[in-house]
């Protein structure tokens, strides 16, 4: 008999570990390893807490397979459903835009013979080739994802095996080059712990068992935390901070991360492994989010009695992120920042609001997340701060994470 709790924890971990971790070294280059660790632990606690708030609220629903938009409608009416759905759709469009720009930059790095046309051709090729699998069927995506995920794990282990022995203590002791970078980087890091969209599926899979759901969330988020710590140790510990920042500022894309690896290590094998892992992490994340957005748009159109074919749905899914990437080919970090902004509402502000309403209406729930209403208030304030980080950066109140 298979262990559903363990399987659910792996599902949480698999959904969490994706392309968001690739942006971590880019956005934390000027921040230093110590502050990066502080931000990782803070967001891990914060997002595990918000996920457990969803668990608390799920005690009040009659259908264990109810989606998060249904929870929002139950407690805040149609306005809640619309806001939950909009924030999810915008989040998925924003993160797809990041994946397309990141994938395009990595592909362009191995197609230098295309000259100035390398970037647009790579962006279009990345989107169209992978988009074909989405349009064909979910089965085609499943088969490709299984294969690539296994190769990705091997590539990640290979990268760590080669880079961790090169770590230097003095590099890990580097301090922030600018004040408040830990706040500026928070939206991008926030997306790296984003698994909340699958909580309804796991709740249904575990038959609404609160104890098993809690264990799956805590265990499933601990695995990515360990992976992120090792990844950050490998990059921060190998790259001298000033040199790394200089390279990244010249090329603020994932290709810049690969170039920095080669400049510092002088090894084509190590930089090639980083490129392979980065590409596979992008592709597997891209396929998962694309399929979710594809199905979400299909469901939304059906609600207004519009039947769209798979090709039309594919165009609706991929045209906006493709346009963003073509007009802003270096927008990987910016797109992740705005994705983090939307996900902050969906993954933090919304569950805080739902838990507050549920506690008012159901004061004697068997399970209640530790901390009481004061912790809800603190989480809400942190969520509102993270949501407004891009605006504070644009207004000059916070430093840019790159540049």
From TrEMBL:
NCBIfam families: araaP. Keywords: Amino-acid transport, Cell inner membrane, Cell membrane, Membrane, Transmembrane, Transmembrane helix, Transport. The lineage of its organism: Bacteria, Pseudomonadati, Pseudomonadota, Gammaproteobacteria, Pasteurellales. It is a multi-pass membrane protein. The chain crosses the membrane at residues 39-58, 79-99, 119-140, 147-168, 180-201, 213-231, 276-297, 309-329, 335-358, 370-393. It is found in: Cell inner membrane. Involved in transporting aromatic amino acids across the cytoplasmic membrane. The keyword Membrane applies. Its main location: membrane. Belongs to the amino acid/polyamine transporter 2 family. Mtr/TnaB/TyrP permease subfamily. It holds the Pfam family Trp_Tyr_perm. This is Aromatic amino acid permease.
